[in-house]
Amino acid sequence: MTPTLGTLQLEPYSPDLVAPPVAATLASLPDLAATAYVVGIDPALADTATLNETFGIDPDAGANCVIVLGRRGADQRPAACVVLASTRADVNGLVRRTLDVRKCSFAPQDWAVGETAMEHGGITPVGLPVGWPILVDRAVTQQPWVVVGSGLRRSKLVLPGAALADLPAARVLTDLGLPAS
Question: In what helix (H) or strand (E) does residue 75 lie, and over which residues does it extend?
Fold first, then answer.
């Protein structure tokens, strides 16, 4: 049965509505692809707050994926953080400690877009480069369904929250998402 998230008109997953690395990952994970839905949207609505307001989506039904870079000396360690849209990632605390780095910050936009082969505003934990840790807030995995990026600004991917814990390189962390201030 198709989930209901606000007024989004979801359809079963189709590779033509997601970025190539997302389609490749879903092709390699048929069980995940079988539970996935997509929805085409106006790219101007891709930002989380705008999407939620326009389609009446509960912020706890959306999951943001942010790319961070940790540094220890000359060693650079990228990772993805997936938190509920109603929270913000604890980059300078839990993420920094988990990556075992001295400094951690949001990755520059151009770098993140280039490395992921996804569009800004559409980066998703599905289809990230091999070896990148995917840090997922436990609260995300407890949602029946979450809206995430599709790799493109013109669509969104909808997955069971628990499925994000099963992505390659995923690690579920408690309290990764802090209250938004």
Answer: strand 75-84
Q: How many CB atoms lie within 10 A of CB 76?
A: 12
Q: Is 148 helix (H, G, I), strand (E, B) or coil?
A: strand
The pLDDT, as a whole number, for residue 131 is 93
User: Chain-centre distance of CA 13, in angstroms?
Assistant: 16
Environment class of 49 (CB within 10 Å of its CB; exposed 0-12, middle 13-18, buried 19+): exposed
Closest by Cα among 113, 101, 109 to 77: 101
Strands across the sheet containing 37-40:
11-12, 37-40, 155-159, 146-149
Mean pLDDT of all residues in 10-17: 95
Report pTM. Answer: 0.95
Q: Residue 104: in which H helix or E strand, if any? A: strand 103-106
Structure tokens at 100: 């075992």
CB–CB of 54/46 below 8 Å? no
Q: How far is Cα 131 from Cα 77, in angstroms, rounded to an integer?
A: 10
Tokens of 148: 């995430």
Supply 160's token pair: 């069971």
Q: What is the CA radius of gyration of the chain?
A: 15
In one-letter notation, the amino acid at residue 119 is E
Chain centroid to Cα 171, Å, comes to 13
